[in-house]
Write a structure and sequence with these properties.
Length: about 350
Amino acid sequence: MTVFLRTALIAVAAGFLFETIGMFLPWLLGPMIAMLLVSQFTKMELYWPKTLRTAGLVMLGVQIGASFTRDAVFLMWLDLPYMAFMTVSVVGLSIVLGLLFKRMVDESLATSLLGSIPGGLAQMVVIAEEVKSANITVVTMMQTIRIFMVVTIVPFLTVFLTGREEGEMGERVFTFAPLAFLAALAVGGTLYLGMKRIGFPAAELLAPILTMAIVQTVTGELLVDLPYWLIALAQVCIGAGLGLQMEGIGDKLTFRLGAAIVLNNVLLISFTAFIAYVLAKMLPDYIFLDFFLSAAPGGIAEMAITALATGGDVALITSFQLFRLFFILLIASPIVTIIVKKLDAKSGN
């Protein structure tokens, strides 16, 4: 308990400091950077319960899901071609960059591809465990460093982009609807248990998002309106967990490997900006910020938090990120895994 309280105090203090100095996304980046620095450069013992990160993901999932109004869900169908174009483009380049990474550091094909595809840290590590030729340590480092770079670089870049004013987002009226709220609890519980049973990743985040989207679309009601302090608390829970997740990376990282990973991610982030620019030019009714956050190879939670802070279309951005996640987990990763396993079998690995 003492170690946890110390960790919590550092996380909250870092968030407060970042907010005081006007740093972007203070309650997410403050705890994350503080945990990373303290764990990397001191011998101080830190502890952050997984249940708190889970609670933060659930709260954030509810807030993200609240953006999926009936109109927003119906408009998603019109965006499916753009989702497919963006997803195939980003995943295609990730595979090309994986091949480039293999040549730079002489890692196995499985390691290079599974580390380069932006399918999420936990998910890609689990997939890597099924492939004998994959170096799980390198895959973990590649995915972790990419998350860190995206979570720090992308929000910083959005400071220079124009989002929506409050009036442009449309006024949302919250009135408590007991029946809709009970329906959401039932649907959410069923979705969560179903996802956990089949081992689907990020159930804590995806189940609330899908629940809110389904119930609000069917009933037409806005179910919740979380206050700022609760969203900030959710960000602290997620940020502290992310920071400690990166513990020990510096001990395993060589200069050549680190340079290759950084180059890989800089090229990927630059390409997502290019794809966003192309789509924004093709579709003048949309803004560049929305497409940039939709294409950015970070997590759904992190990009949604950025969208909330910058005036991005949270429903649009989340739907694009969800589409890519499902595409990677259900199509791209299984295909890559099958191909790599066959190549390993031929080479005798």
